[in-house]
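Bug report (template v2)

What were you trying to do?
Predict the complex of my protein with FE2/S2 (inorganic) cluster.

What happened?
Run completed; filing so the output is reviewed.

Input:
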Amino acid sequence: MARRLPVLDAARGEAVEIRIANESIRAFGNESIAAAALASGTRVLSRSLKYHRPRTFFCLEGHCSGCLVRLGGVPNLRACQAPCTAGAEIEGQNAFPSAEVDLLGAVDFLFSRGLDHHTLMTGSSVLNKLANKVVRQLSGLGRLPQSPVSASELPEVAERAVDVCVIGGGPAGLAAAIAAAQRGKRTLLVDDQLRPGGSLRADPRSGRDRAETTWAAAIDAGVEVLARSTAIGFFPEDDGGVLAISSPERLYRVHARAWIWATGGYAVNLPFQENDRPGVIAARAVGRLLVEHGILAGDKVCIVEVPQVARDAEALAAALDHAGAEVVRVALADTLGARGRSWVNGVDTKKGRVDCDLVAVAAIPSPASEGARQQGCKVTLDPDAGGFRIVVDEAGQTSTANVWACGDVTGYMGPARAATDGARVGANVAASLGG
Ligand code: FES
């Protein structure tokens, strides 16, 4: 059972009350809704759109869609990217009557071998049309917002012109931005998380304080930081190249003399049976709950890992053990599958069953290289990470002029080496722009 640890009480922020599925929950201003939900015992947030399998968070980084909820009447918002504000109303999606007890979940039992959603097992076109109407009522991703926003209500687009735009506020991005700003370059840093820091906020070896002090150092150096802001597309045909940034307040059009991609990697799942069960979550998310939120996500944790991240898994296991959890580490090669329905309760391995109330999946992060690919940067397949990493030369320059990259998006290196790499590339970029 998840619980808040007293050690981080001072950093949680103001106590607020939010409502999840019509129940009042005590939360804190510096927590995401997903973290507060877990700490208060709310485990299932919504249901999958076709088979109504229970869904909850996996990555806690806004990248997996496992935590989609209806927030304040707006569907499909990520609970892990929404801060707790007093009076927030959160509802599950795709479920009747509730996400925890969903009668439509019978579909998962009845069609355990899959459902052909094209024919819906109907022989005639008339029956097929009828079946389609019924299915459309039962599936899908939430309901439309109660009060839609009209285009005229949207804020004006803002323009930014800088020397260096750094995309990604993890250890590499923060270090690169600091290095560029300290060398006199007007530097903008764009980060999509609630608070910049990236993997520093999930790694027990660095810790929350390191993320806070590095973020503060960036601001001291003169870096403009856009937090909770996502780079949604690069448009080369527009004014010599514009990066569109979506932030909670407005849309930005960013022009830069040089770009640095420091987008890191996505926390991904590993292949074993029933790996989509709630309670099977990314090891980095388990670390984030512990390091950033002071929440111990389970009492008995089974870490399923691949050998390439053994050191990270070891550090997480030690931190969980120190916080009072029982920890068992299992190699992916020995893992057969997870057990449990609405929450995991064990892992079957080749050596027997491991009882647990949380499975932490320690995989190599998959490089988040989509934006750089839009800028024409050469990428190469990283089979172990299951994605494409950006190809850079020794200085950190990509195959596209004035576009650079550093940290895990160029190949997994972990927070400490990523910070060193970011500082080096940030200095190189500043030098390339001249005095
Ligand atoms: S998107 Fe929220 S947990 Fe992955």
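What did the reviewer find?
The mean pLDDT is 91. The CA atoms of residues 17 and 264 lie 34 Å apart.
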